[in-house]
Amino acid sequence: LLLRWRRRRGLWGKVAEAQQRQELSLVRMEAAARRFREQNPSVDVVSILCLPLPELSKKLRDGSLPPDHVFYAYVGKALQIATETNCITEYLQESETQLRKAKLTGMQGLLYGVPVSIKDSIDCQGHDSTMGFIKYLNKPAAEDSVVVQVLRRQGAIPFVKTNVPQSLISYDCKNLIFGQTRNPLLYTKTPGGSSGGEGALVGGGGSILGIGTDVGGSLRFPAAFCGVCALKPTGNRLSKRGVMAGVVGQKAVAAAVGPMAKDVESLALCLRALLCEDMFSLDSTVPPLPFNEEVYSSTQPLRIGYYETDFFTMPSPAMRRAVRETKQLLEEAGHTLVPFELTNVDYVIFNFCVRGMFADGGTSFVKRFNGEMEKVGMGMFFWLAKSPHWLKTLLSWIAKPFVPRFSSIIGSMRANTVDEVWSLHHEIEDFCHQFIAQWKKLNLDVMLCPMLGPALGIGYPGKLSVAVSYTMLYNTLDFPAGVVPVTMVTDEDEEELKGYKGYYRDWWDRTLAKAFHGSVGMPVAVQCVALPWQEELCLRFMKEVETL
């Protein structure tokens, strides 16, 4: 008992130190922003913060806007949003040194002078990548991740790291070290996750470009919940070297690194900058595919597949309306829309997503929590992962007649033999080819899909792991998928929500209805999807949706 008490005291000590560092970061940001304001009282910060990224970067490159004006404008705004939402974990003070060097060396790179925020789990030299775990505190990264190296070479200035949920396997944003991040649009709502700090900061206007990761919707949830845009590329389009993963080694569900910004043109500019020789030479496992301008700037009418529901998670009234209204606008603009029939999404979620992520019975996931004081927002998943095989089998059998979805999840979290894992991977490949065959048969260019929304109340994502069905499908298929906000929740949507029952009418469906509640005025997005390696076409479609 004494040893355990001492250990816990030691852990609390580390947490207290990390929280002090976070506090000190905000103090330093405040001092830096104040010093700049005092020395440059005539700088119009508001007009700088209003500039979209393409325009801002053009002004930085042609010299009409000094990089320090932009940098300190965003440091000040980021501080304000961090104070309101608790989204920043650390200020990268070396960014001020990089800024001074940039002024001396002149305008180099597509993102010259652009301040960029970085998700906690993406390595920045000399800083922790904690994933919300105490054990990873005081273990600074030895070097920058490849994506951060390339950003720096393109002239961008990484200036803050942002908060994540413990383990990253969550679409809320809370951990024991830095606490809960709130949605900048409504503090009682989650900003989404796991790139939740990015969503809050970009959504609140404190960062013009953020870099996050996505293994089940971790870029798309925060963007949709906070009313901004994001792109999850094909898993290997951008380098993952130096990027921490929630479950290491699993190959069933593809993770990806991607950008988040206020508009689609900013995402395109970021991809243009990242898909360069530096990226391909620093990580030779990334295919050397530069950004395809011709595809992105094309104005040819598109043939677009669409669906309003996956028949697994019943869409909220606003989600359904978002797809219908977008479909109508696209048709009026001369595009062709074709219904796409989704089948067996329940099988995909349980057998490919859950079973694929936890094919070892959850052993490696549970190991991550060894020595941690608390499993924040991990309730059911952690408990199931820890349970012995016989108990999972028994619970699955007992639950089947009453709560079939719960039974399927338990059954999917058993340990698999190597033979079973190979068979699973083969089955996922087959499913992917069948999906593409259906796509090609309809002669589609892209797909318009629902995106979970509006933002759920804080704490709800931990109880609603099943609601990842709309996003996780495209991690399993490894298709590029982006989100674009298209509407806001109306009083009518809120009224209609009272009749929400769900497809299973189980505890999860009842809880989801409560989680959506009280969201009038909150943004709702749609998902835009393309075939693997077609990021430029995906962005072109997103741009079309955004414009309409």
From TrEMBL:
Residues 73-539 form the Amidase domain. The keyword Lipid metabolism applies. The keyword Phosphoprotein applies. Coiled coil: none annotated. It catalyses: N-(5Z,8Z,11Z,14Z-eicosatetraenoyl)-L-serine + H2O = (5Z,8Z,11Z,14Z)-eicosatetraenoate + L-serine; (5Z,8Z,11Z,14Z)-eicosatetraenamide + H2O = (5Z,8Z,11Z,14Z)-eicosatetraenoate + NH4(+); N-(5Z,8Z,11Z,14Z-eicosatetraenoyl)-ethanolamine + H2O = ethanolamine + (5Z,8Z,11Z,14Z)-eicosatetraenoate; (9Z,12Z)-octadecadienamide + H2O = (9Z,12Z)-octadecadienoate + NH4(+). Pfam families: Amidase. GO terms for molecular function: amidase activity; fatty acid amide hydrolase activity. GO terms for biological process: fatty acid catabolic process. The active site is at 119 (charge relay system), 194 (charge relay system), 218 (acyl-ester intermediate). Substrate binds at residues 168, 194, 215-218. PROSITE patterns: AMIDASES (PS00571). Keywords: Hydrolase, Lipid degradation, Lipid metabolism, Phosphoprotein. Its EC number is 3.5.1.99. InterPro entries: Amidase_CS, Amidase_dom, AS_sf, Endocannabinoid_amidase. Belongs to the amidase family. This is Fatty-acid amide hydrolase 1.
